Amino acid sequence: MKFKFGEIETHSLYKKLCKREEEGGCGVVGFASTIPVGGKHIITPSVQMRNRGNGKGGGIAVVGFESGSFGFNKEELESNYMLHVAYLDPSAQKEVEKDYIEPVFNVYHRQKIETLDDYRKVGLEVKPPDVYRYLFRVKEEILDNYWKEVKSFENVSERVEDDIVYYNSFAINKEFYASLGADGQRAFVLSHGKNLMILKVVGYAEQVAQYYGLEDVRAHIWVAHQRYPTKGKVWHPGGAHPFGAMHEALIHNGDFANYHSITEYLWQRGRYPLFLTDTEAAALVFDLLNREYKYPLEYLIEALAPTSELDFKMLSEDKQKKYKIVQESHIHSSPDGPWFFIVAKNDPCKDLLQLIGITDTSMLRPQVFAVQKGEVGIGLIASEKQAIDATLESLSEEDERFCPIADKYWNARGGSHSDGGAFIFTLKDAGEQKKLIVTDKFGREISFIQKERVKIDDSIELKVKEDVLEKVEKLVRKGAQSTFLHLVEIVNLSNESEMYDTFAALVKKGKESDDKFEKVVEALTLFNDRRFETGKWKRSSLLHLCSKSLVELFNSLPSVKKKKGCFLRVDWKTRNDLCEFESDKQTLVIDAKEFPPEGFDCDAMLLVKAHELGCKQFIVYNCRGQRFIGSGLGLNSKGVRIDIYGSSGDYIASSMDGAELYVHGNAQDQLGQIMKSGKLVIYGDVGQTFLYGAKGGEVYVMGNAAGRPLINSVGSPKVIINGTCLDYLAESFMAGDPLNDGGFAIINGMDFDEDGKLIEQSTPYPGGNLFSLASGGAIYIRDPHKKLTSHQLNGGKFVNLSRDDWEIMLPYLRENEKLFGIPVDELLKVDGKKCPPTNVYRKVVPVKTVVLTTTSTDLEE
Q: Is residue 340 a contact partner of residue 253, using CB atoms and an 8 Å limit?
């Protein structure tokens, strides 16, 4: 029986085969804004990452509420504690208040958090608990009595009131949640702290915000988590993330292999996990180090994610000495295994709000950081870049001061001497709005060149002047390269009005005919992809202008229903109108905006169906984390070309065999897995586990790769990464002899500065485990200053570059120049002087290969 595209998911057999409660991979996202923003903006990225959850656990934390929230003024919000208690059994409320709240606290306000009248309206299957908020301070007599009891002890906490609040919550949880068993759980504390709230449900994170009515609640910091914890009572609101410390909320993606070791460490220090989850244990350790031991943030992070191996040796002697003490004291509390933390933190004593991202030493979980500065500032952290883009797009739709594209995206290198594997976004009071400061683990501030933003107001109708139209007409006739160079010239003239007019004229001309459409799209794509001097303008805002122009052009194309024409457009509503293509020269332009990111209904499946109907040219735009694009095309898909615009997702080009795929921007994780042949080009950075098990093909990356590219690659992949990668490059590489059509990777270690100029990175490769345990292939790495050492290798060895090596490399470097505008001659320059390739590039081969093939003309360095 045949089904139309999009109908298979409703078929009974499909429902039996595909369990919708299948586990996800933890979606985490958080952002810190210099102005308070609404909860609706945490909903958007949560929805984007729904496929990383499973509907069995979701939560949201909020820090730094806007004055007036819940009827409280600024003084009330900042000086008083907030206690949020979830009542699973409404009858427990009187007992909790009588025994634990009224005797200890002066409660100034008590309020039930409003909810929808029916939890099923937002798709929840389990009714969330009623939650009450208490605004209070500890009674004076309780404080006095506490002092009398503890004053004889050394190292007494200066934050006595925090201690009382903390242990009071522990007592509530012990009596009403942990001690009564599954049938007797009646209440638990969600959060306790100043200007902070945690809410969670058996469901998805966005359903938390929808059920408890957070859409219009405004605050400076929001974090969200999809999926239940990996240990403990997983299908229960008490077990979902976030978990509260004192004035902090912690979420995490990952799993602790040494959970019991950590709990023993906590027991020895008088802290007893009650929810039995690894996330709770992490929050307890964080609070212990932060509040009781008063560790500076740098040493707290070191205790969680210790620096090791080569990175430890790269630290100063003073840091090595201090870090060694930290590690010896806290190694049993360092989470072992894959994990990534996001912490939302209020520091009432220092009057700071902070958003912190910490990655494990081995970088086994995906993470992306981003920042945007200008009239407003925002720092963002997420599992996936597409969640960051979704947040910014949502914010920009409400407030034009936000741009849908961040000024900078990057990854942290776990446990490193370079950034410490952690970044902190700090919000400090600075008049009408807060100031955003970005630092790494070591407290070093990350600075950015401040440029102006090109403001795009959709309410302004641009009227294109005739002389501008005439000029654009001539440029389009000349071709895309001339048009692109003119756009760059206009940008550097700093004439905003002329820039608007030129882009508007290009869009207008592109709509006139298929030939002009093709040339204009090519010119705008060059503008999007290449690095160049942007004058006084932010590159991110120029990319936004370019993206809007491209989307307008793509939206103007005739529907696939028309059947005729060089370019046909299909979207979610017209997905069932596909039919056989009249010519393999026709291009199908897919609007991915409303398609799910994966599954039988996704745009990647539509593309496969169109290919079966004879289409070979594709453009996919308006991507919102779509996965698997380019996969499933079958054997020998040579002649197929796919161009991707927007915020694409994971697993793109996986298993590709022959096709060409171009990602016009940064890419995410797991791209090109088991790729057999074809061409993959990324005009930006690429995420974790890139080209895992790849068997062949040509691959070009304009920027950096995150951790673990080319693991277990075999056959003959040919790869150029113009930036660097964080660690574990080409581990277990098994790709034959590069001089006999085997595989290799070229690492150029280059970057672009704020003005688009090509510059060397501080090191061509910052990590260890370079070519670790490899048995074939080679790494050609640009290292003219011999910064790399044998200590960074594990089973590999440096050998001299031969003439044959250079002849193998050169054609790929020429193609790299054509794609990215990175001249081979520039790569061969050292301190401004052109040098022979043997003085610029070094070759790394497996030790076994050195023994067998090194000759007198290829001497070991």
A: yes
